Protein backbone atom coordinates (compact mmCIF):
# COMPACT_ATOMS: atom_id res chain seq x y z
CA UNK A 1 0.00 0.00 0.00
CA UNK A 2 0.98 3.62 -0.36
CA UNK A 3 1.13 4.04 3.42
CA UNK A 4 3.53 1.15 3.80
CA UNK A 5 5.74 2.49 0.99
CA UNK A 6 5.92 5.96 2.57
CA UNK A 7 6.81 4.44 5.96
CA UNK A 8 9.51 2.21 4.45
CA UNK A 9 11.09 4.98 2.41
CA UNK A 10 11.39 7.19 5.48
CA UNK A 11 13.90 4.78 7.06
CA UNK A 12 15.60 3.09 4.14
CA UNK A 13 17.27 4.39 1.02
CA UNK A 14 16.37 2.35 -2.08
CA UNK A 15 18.41 2.33 -5.26
CA UNK A 16 15.21 2.07 -7.29
CA UNK A 17 11.49 2.05 -6.43
CA UNK A 18 8.88 0.11 -8.41
CA UNK A 19 5.34 1.47 -8.00
CA UNK A 20 2.13 -0.16 -9.13
CA UNK A 21 -0.13 2.55 -10.51
CA UNK A 22 -3.20 1.03 -8.93
CA UNK A 23 -2.63 0.74 -5.20
CA UNK A 24 -5.43 0.14 -2.67
CA UNK A 25 -5.07 3.52 -0.92
CA UNK A 26 -3.45 5.89 -3.45
CA UNK A 27 -2.67 6.18 -7.16
CA UNK A 28 0.92 5.63 -8.34
CA UNK A 29 1.61 9.17 -9.53
CA UNK A 30 0.32 10.66 -6.27
CA UNK A 31 2.58 8.29 -4.34
CA UNK A 32 5.48 9.39 -6.51
CA UNK A 33 5.08 13.00 -5.41
CA UNK A 34 4.70 11.94 -1.76
CA UNK A 35 7.91 9.93 -1.97
CA UNK A 36 9.85 12.62 -3.71
CA UNK A 37 12.47 13.40 -1.18
CA UNK A 38 13.44 17.04 -1.28
CA UNK A 39 16.80 15.99 -2.50
CA UNK A 40 17.64 17.24 -6.01
CA UNK A 41 18.03 13.68 -7.28
CA UNK A 42 15.75 11.25 -5.43
CA UNK A 43 15.74 7.48 -6.02
CA UNK A 44 14.54 6.59 -9.50
CA UNK A 45 10.92 5.37 -9.67
CA UNK A 46 9.43 3.01 -12.22
CA UNK A 47 5.67 2.85 -12.68
CA UNK A 48 3.88 -0.42 -13.45
CA UNK A 49 0.69 0.15 -15.46
CA UNK A 50 -2.17 -1.98 -16.63
CA UNK A 51 -2.83 -2.76 -20.31
CA UNK A 52 -3.87 0.25 -22.37
CA UNK A 53 -2.83 2.80 -19.76
CA UNK A 54 -0.35 4.58 -22.01
CA UNK A 55 -1.64 8.00 -21.04
CA UNK A 56 -1.07 7.37 -17.34
CA UNK A 57 2.39 6.03 -18.14
CA UNK A 58 3.22 9.21 -20.08
CA UNK A 59 1.93 11.38 -17.26
CA UNK A 60 4.13 9.48 -14.78
CA UNK A 61 7.20 9.95 -16.97
CA UNK A 62 6.32 13.62 -17.33
CA UNK A 63 6.20 13.88 -13.53
CA UNK A 64 9.69 12.45 -13.28
CA UNK A 65 9.29 8.66 -13.31
CA UNK A 66 12.47 7.07 -14.64
CA UNK A 67 10.49 4.59 -16.75
CA UNK A 68 7.22 2.62 -16.97
CA UNK A 69 6.47 -1.03 -17.69
CA UNK A 70 3.03 -2.31 -18.72
CA UNK A 71 2.33 -5.14 -16.28
CA UNK A 72 1.69 -7.72 -19.01
CA UNK A 73 5.25 -7.10 -20.23
CA UNK A 74 6.94 -7.62 -16.90
CA UNK A 75 9.59 -10.30 -17.24
CA UNK A 76 12.93 -10.91 -15.62
CA UNK A 77 14.60 -9.37 -18.65
CA UNK A 78 12.42 -6.26 -18.94
CA UNK A 79 12.64 -5.60 -15.20
CA UNK A 80 16.39 -6.05 -15.22
CA UNK A 81 16.79 -3.67 -18.13
CA UNK A 82 14.44 -1.00 -16.72
CA UNK A 83 16.03 -1.09 -13.26
CA UNK A 84 19.63 -1.01 -14.48
CA UNK A 85 18.87 1.86 -16.88
CA UNK A 86 17.10 3.85 -14.19
CA UNK A 87 19.86 3.29 -11.64
CA UNK A 88 22.58 4.15 -14.15
CA UNK A 89 20.78 7.31 -15.31
CA UNK A 90 20.37 8.45 -11.73
CA UNK A 91 24.03 7.78 -11.00
CA UNK A 92 25.00 9.89 -14.03
CA UNK A 93 22.62 12.69 -13.07
CA UNK A 94 24.02 12.73 -9.55
CA UNK A 95 27.57 12.84 -10.94
CA UNK A 96 26.66 15.74 -13.26
CA UNK A 97 25.03 17.65 -10.43
CA UNK A 98 28.03 17.14 -8.12
CA UNK A 99 30.40 18.19 -10.91
CA UNK A 100 28.30 21.23 -11.83
CA UNK A 101 28.23 22.34 -8.19
CA UNK A 102 32.02 21.93 -7.91
CA UNK A 103 32.50 23.92 -11.13
CA UNK A 104 30.16 26.65 -9.95
CA UNK A 105 32.05 26.91 -6.66
CA UNK A 106 35.42 26.99 -8.48
CA UNK A 107 34.11 29.61 -10.88
CA UNK A 108 32.86 31.79 -8.06
CA UNK A 109 36.22 31.50 -6.34
CA UNK A 110 38.02 32.47 -9.57
CA UNK A 111 35.76 35.52 -9.92
CA UNK A 112 36.57 36.54 -6.37
CA UNK A 113 40.31 36.05 -6.93
CA UNK A 114 40.13 37.94 -10.20
CA UNK A 115 38.42 40.86 -8.45
CA UNK A 116 41.05 40.83 -5.72
CA UNK A 117 43.87 40.88 -8.28
CA UNK A 118 42.19 43.67 -10.20
CA UNK A 119 41.71 45.72 -7.03
CA UNK A 120 45.29 44.97 -6.02
CA UNK A 121 46.94 46.23 -9.18
CA UNK A 122 44.58 49.17 -9.40
CA UNK A 123 45.48 50.26 -5.86
CA UNK A 124 49.20 49.63 -6.36
CA UNK A 125 49.20 51.54 -9.65
CA UNK A 126 47.53 54.53 -8.01
CA UNK A 127 49.76 54.41 -4.94
CA UNK A 128 52.91 54.30 -7.04
CA UNK A 129 51.94 57.14 -9.35
CA UNK A 130 52.16 59.87 -6.69
CA UNK A 131 55.72 59.13 -5.43
CA UNK A 132 56.79 58.45 -9.02
CA UNK A 133 55.55 61.88 -10.15
CA UNK A 134 57.44 63.48 -7.23
CA UNK A 135 60.64 61.56 -8.09
CA UNK A 136 60.34 62.62 -11.73
CA UNK A 137 59.85 66.27 -10.74
CA UNK A 138 63.02 66.31 -8.63
CA UNK A 139 65.10 64.50 -11.24
CA UNK A 140 63.80 66.95 -13.81
CA UNK A 141 64.76 69.96 -11.66
CA UNK A 142 68.31 68.63 -11.29
CA UNK A 143 68.51 67.67 -14.99
CA UNK A 144 67.48 71.19 -16.03
CA UNK A 145 70.46 72.55 -14.07
CA UNK A 146 68.23 74.44 -11.62
CA UNK A 147 70.17 72.99 -8.69
CA UNK A 148 73.60 73.58 -10.14
CA UNK A 149 75.62 72.93 -13.27
CA UNK A 150 75.97 69.39 -14.59
CA UNK A 151 78.56 67.73 -16.76
CA UNK A 152 77.48 65.76 -19.87
CA UNK A 153 77.66 62.38 -18.19
CA UNK A 154 75.46 63.54 -15.32
CA UNK A 155 72.95 64.99 -17.80
CA UNK A 156 72.87 61.70 -19.75
CA UNK A 157 72.30 59.71 -16.56
CA UNK A 158 69.48 61.97 -15.41
CA UNK A 159 67.83 61.88 -18.81
CA UNK A 160 67.97 58.11 -18.65
CA UNK A 161 66.32 58.28 -15.19
CA UNK A 162 63.59 60.54 -16.62
CA UNK A 163 62.91 58.15 -19.51
CA UNK A 164 62.66 55.27 -17.05
CA UNK A 165 60.20 57.22 -14.88
CA UNK A 166 58.10 57.91 -17.99
CA UNK A 167 58.14 54.25 -19.00
CA UNK A 168 57.01 53.14 -15.52
CA UNK A 169 54.26 55.78 -15.58
CA UNK A 170 53.10 54.47 -19.00
CA UNK A 171 52.95 50.91 -17.69
CA UNK A 172 50.94 51.90 -14.63
CA UNK A 173 48.60 54.00 -16.75
CA UNK A 174 48.03 50.96 -18.98
CA UNK A 175 47.23 48.82 -15.95
CA UNK A 176 44.77 51.44 -14.69
CA UNK A 177 43.19 51.64 -18.17
CA UNK A 178 42.70 47.86 -18.13
CA UNK A 179 40.82 47.97 -14.82
CA UNK A 180 38.72 50.87 -16.09
CA UNK A 181 37.83 48.86 -19.21
CA UNK A 182 37.11 45.70 -17.19
CA UNK A 183 34.87 47.48 -14.73
CA UNK A 184 33.10 49.54 -17.40
CA UNK A 185 34.46 52.74 -15.88
CA UNK A 186 36.12 54.04 -19.01
CA UNK A 187 33.83 56.83 -20.16
CA UNK A 188 34.00 58.27 -23.66
CA UNK A 189 33.57 61.97 -24.26
CA UNK A 190 32.09 61.64 -27.74
CA UNK A 191 31.90 64.60 -30.05
CA UNK A 192 32.02 65.20 -33.76
CA UNK A 193 35.76 65.16 -34.39
CA UNK A 194 38.18 66.10 -37.11
CA UNK A 195 39.88 62.78 -37.89
CA UNK A 196 42.64 64.45 -39.85
CA UNK A 197 43.50 66.52 -36.81
CA UNK A 198 43.61 63.39 -34.59
CA UNK A 199 45.96 61.70 -37.07
CA UNK A 200 48.20 64.81 -37.25
CA UNK A 201 48.36 64.93 -33.46
CA UNK A 202 49.42 61.27 -33.19
CA UNK A 203 52.01 61.69 -35.93
CA UNK A 204 53.43 64.80 -34.23
CA UNK A 205 53.84 62.84 -30.99
CA UNK A 206 55.85 60.21 -32.88
CA UNK A 207 58.02 62.57 -34.97
CA UNK A 208 61.05 62.17 -32.67
CA UNK A 209 61.00 58.33 -32.81
CA UNK A 210 60.42 58.36 -36.58
CA UNK A 211 63.42 60.61 -37.11
CA UNK A 212 65.58 58.66 -34.66
CA UNK A 213 65.04 55.51 -36.76
CA UNK A 214 65.13 57.32 -40.05
CA UNK A 215 61.71 55.95 -40.98
CA UNK A 216 59.81 57.58 -43.85
CA UNK A 217 56.17 58.40 -43.10
CA UNK A 218 53.70 58.39 -45.94
CA UNK A 219 50.42 60.14 -45.10
CA UNK A 220 47.41 59.52 -47.31
CA UNK A 221 44.70 61.48 -45.50
CA UNK A 222 42.34 63.68 -47.56
CA UNK A 223 41.41 67.12 -46.23
CA UNK A 224 37.73 66.31 -46.29
CA UNK A 225 36.68 63.18 -44.47
CA UNK A 226 33.17 62.18 -43.37
CA UNK A 227 32.41 63.05 -39.77
CA UNK A 228 32.62 60.62 -36.92
CA UNK A 229 31.44 60.95 -33.36
CA UNK A 230 34.27 59.89 -31.10
CA UNK A 231 36.40 60.71 -28.09
CA UNK A 232 39.26 62.55 -29.81
CA UNK A 233 41.80 61.91 -27.04
CA UNK A 234 41.02 58.18 -27.12
CA UNK A 235 41.41 58.02 -30.90
CA UNK A 236 44.76 59.81 -30.61
CA UNK A 237 45.74 57.30 -27.89
CA UNK A 238 44.90 54.32 -30.16
CA UNK A 239 46.62 55.81 -33.22
CA UNK A 240 49.74 56.69 -31.22
CA UNK A 241 49.86 53.15 -29.92
CA UNK A 242 49.61 51.69 -33.42
CA UNK A 243 52.23 54.13 -34.70
CA UNK A 244 54.56 53.46 -31.79
CA UNK A 245 54.30 49.69 -32.44
CA UNK A 246 54.89 50.23 -36.16
CA UNK A 247 58.04 52.21 -35.35
CA UNK A 248 59.16 49.72 -32.72
CA UNK A 249 58.88 46.74 -35.07
CA UNK A 250 60.27 48.39 -38.22
CA UNK A 251 64.00 48.57 -38.87
CA UNK A 252 65.79 51.86 -39.53
CA UNK A 253 65.21 53.11 -43.04
CA UNK A 254 61.81 51.40 -43.28
CA UNK A 255 58.47 52.93 -44.22
CA UNK A 256 55.21 53.57 -42.40
CA UNK A 257 52.01 54.66 -44.08
CA UNK A 258 48.86 56.12 -42.54
CA UNK A 259 45.71 56.35 -44.62
CA UNK A 260 42.11 57.32 -43.95
CA UNK A 261 39.02 56.95 -46.11
CA UNK A 262 35.48 55.60 -46.13
CA UNK A 263 35.89 51.84 -45.58
CA UNK A 264 35.90 50.26 -49.06
CA UNK A 265 33.53 47.43 -48.13
CA UNK A 266 31.54 49.23 -45.45
CA UNK A 267 30.25 52.61 -46.62
CA UNK A 268 28.92 53.48 -43.13
CA UNK A 269 32.37 53.32 -41.60
CA UNK A 270 35.55 55.33 -41.73
CA UNK A 271 38.73 53.30 -42.03
CA UNK A 272 42.15 54.31 -40.76
CA UNK A 273 45.11 52.07 -41.63
CA UNK A 274 48.61 52.05 -40.19
CA UNK A 275 50.89 50.13 -42.53
CA UNK A 276 54.51 49.27 -41.82
CA UNK A 277 57.32 47.51 -43.65
CA UNK A 278 58.55 45.95 -40.41
CA UNK A 279 59.27 42.43 -39.23
CA UNK A 280 55.63 41.31 -39.46
CA UNK A 281 53.79 38.85 -37.22
CA UNK A 282 53.81 35.06 -37.53
CA UNK A 283 50.42 33.49 -38.46
CA UNK A 284 50.35 31.66 -35.07
CA UNK A 285 50.70 34.90 -33.15
CA UNK A 286 48.29 36.90 -35.27
CA UNK A 287 45.05 35.86 -33.54
CA UNK A 288 46.62 36.35 -30.10
CA UNK A 289 48.26 39.77 -30.26
CA UNK A 290 45.10 41.52 -29.04
CA UNK A 291 45.13 39.39 -25.89
CA UNK A 292 46.22 41.01 -22.68
CA UNK A 293 49.95 40.67 -21.91
CA UNK A 294 50.58 38.72 -25.13
CA UNK A 295 53.85 39.44 -26.86
CA UNK A 296 55.00 37.53 -29.92
CA UNK A 297 58.46 35.93 -29.92
CA UNK A 298 60.27 38.28 -32.26
CA UNK A 299 63.94 37.60 -31.79
CA UNK A 300 66.71 39.24 -29.80
CA UNK A 301 66.47 42.74 -31.29
CA UNK A 302 62.82 43.14 -30.38
CA UNK A 303 62.66 40.97 -27.27
CA UNK A 304 62.81 43.75 -24.68
CA UNK A 305 60.84 46.39 -26.50
CA UNK A 306 59.80 48.13 -23.30
CA UNK A 307 56.17 47.07 -23.62
CA UNK A 308 53.91 45.03 -21.37
CA UNK A 309 51.75 43.58 -24.12
CA UNK A 310 48.72 45.64 -23.06
CA UNK A 311 48.63 48.34 -25.74
CA UNK A 312 46.75 46.46 -28.45
CA UNK A 313 44.19 44.96 -26.10
CA UNK A 314 43.43 48.44 -24.74
CA UNK A 315 43.27 49.84 -28.30
CA UNK A 316 40.86 47.12 -29.43
CA UNK A 317 38.59 47.67 -26.41
CA UNK A 318 38.55 51.45 -26.95
CA UNK A 319 37.62 51.01 -30.62
CA UNK A 320 34.93 48.48 -29.66
CA UNK A 321 33.49 51.01 -27.16
CA UNK A 322 33.11 53.35 -30.13
CA UNK A 323 31.19 50.66 -32.02
CA UNK A 324 34.14 49.99 -34.30
CA UNK A 325 36.67 47.22 -34.94
CA UNK A 326 40.42 46.87 -34.99
CA UNK A 327 42.00 44.21 -37.19
CA UNK A 328 45.43 43.18 -38.39
CA UNK A 329 46.96 41.57 -41.46
CA UNK A 330 50.60 40.70 -41.62
CA UNK A 331 53.25 38.89 -43.61
CA UNK A 332 56.36 37.91 -41.66
CA UNK A 333 59.41 39.71 -43.03
CA UNK A 334 57.27 42.10 -45.09
CA UNK A 335 55.22 44.11 -42.60
CA UNK A 336 51.90 44.58 -40.89
CA UNK A 337 48.72 46.55 -41.50
CA UNK A 338 46.48 47.52 -38.61
CA UNK A 339 43.06 48.68 -39.79
CA UNK A 340 40.47 50.28 -37.60
CA UNK A 341 36.94 51.14 -38.62
CA UNK A 342 34.66 53.60 -36.83
CA UNK A 343 30.98 54.23 -37.57
CA UNK A 344 30.25 57.50 -39.42
CA UNK A 345 28.20 60.06 -37.51
CA UNK A 346 24.47 59.91 -38.27
CA UNK A 347 22.95 62.53 -40.59
P1 LIG B 1 53.69 45.81 -26.54
O1 LIG B 1 53.67 46.74 -25.40
O2 LIG B 1 54.45 44.56 -26.29
O3 LIG B 1 54.03 46.47 -27.84
P2 LIG B 1 51.06 45.50 -27.72
O4 LIG B 1 49.80 45.00 -27.12
O5 LIG B 1 51.05 46.88 -28.28
O6 LIG B 1 52.17 45.33 -26.61
O7 LIG B 1 51.51 44.50 -28.84
C1 LIG B 1 51.51 43.10 -28.57
C2 LIG B 1 52.49 42.37 -29.45
O8 LIG B 1 52.05 42.40 -30.81
C3 LIG B 1 53.87 42.99 -29.48
O9 LIG B 1 54.66 42.58 -28.40
C4 LIG B 1 54.41 42.47 -30.79
O10 LIG B 1 54.85 41.13 -30.63
C5 LIG B 1 53.17 42.44 -31.70
N1 LIG B 1 53.06 43.64 -32.55
C6 LIG B 1 52.27 44.72 -32.34
N2 LIG B 1 52.38 45.61 -33.34
C7 LIG B 1 53.26 45.09 -34.22
C8 LIG B 1 53.79 45.52 -35.48
N3 LIG B 1 53.45 46.70 -36.05
N4 LIG B 1 54.68 44.70 -36.10
C9 LIG B 1 55.04 43.52 -35.56
N5 LIG B 1 54.57 43.05 -34.38
C10 LIG B 1 53.69 43.82 -33.73
Helix content: 40-55%
Distance between the termini: 78 Å
**On the 0-100 scale, what is the average pLDDT?**
91
User: Structural class, from helix and strand content?
Assistant: alpha/beta
Main beta sheet strand tally, sense and closure: 5 strands, mixed
Ions, cofactors, ligands: which are bound?
adenosine-5'-diphosphate
Poorly predicted ranges:
none
Secondary structure tally: strands: 10
With helices defined by DSSP (H or I, 4 residues minimum), what is the helix count?
A: 9
Order of helices and strands: HEHEHEHHEHEEHEEHHEE
Main β-sheet, spatial strand arrangement: 5-7-8-10-9
Quaternary state of the chains:
single chain
Strand content of the residues, in percent? 15-25%
Query: How would you describe the shape?
Result: elongated
Radius of gyration: 34 Å
List the helices and strands and how they pair.
Blueprint: H1 2-11, E1 17-20, H2 28-35, E2 45-49, H3 54-62, E3 67-70, H4 76-143, H5 152-182, E4 191-193, H6 195-212, E5 216-220, E6 228-230, H7 232-248, E7 255-262, E8 269-276, H8 299-303, H9 311-321, E9 325-331, E10 335-343
Parallel strand pairs: 1-2, 2-3, 5-7
Antiparallel strand pairs: 4-6, 7-8, 8-10, 9-10
The chain binds adenosine-5'-diphosphate (ADP).
Amino acid sequence: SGDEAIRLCRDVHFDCILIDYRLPDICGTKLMSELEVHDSVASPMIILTAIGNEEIAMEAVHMGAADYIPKHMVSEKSLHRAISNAVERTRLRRAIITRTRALEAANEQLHRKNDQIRRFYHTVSHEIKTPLTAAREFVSLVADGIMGDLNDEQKRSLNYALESCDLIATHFNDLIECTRLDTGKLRLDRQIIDVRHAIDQSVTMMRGSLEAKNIVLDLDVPNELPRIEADASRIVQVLSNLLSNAIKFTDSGGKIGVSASVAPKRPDYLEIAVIDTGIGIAPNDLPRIFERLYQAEQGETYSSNGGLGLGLSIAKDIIALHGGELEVESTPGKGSTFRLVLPLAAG
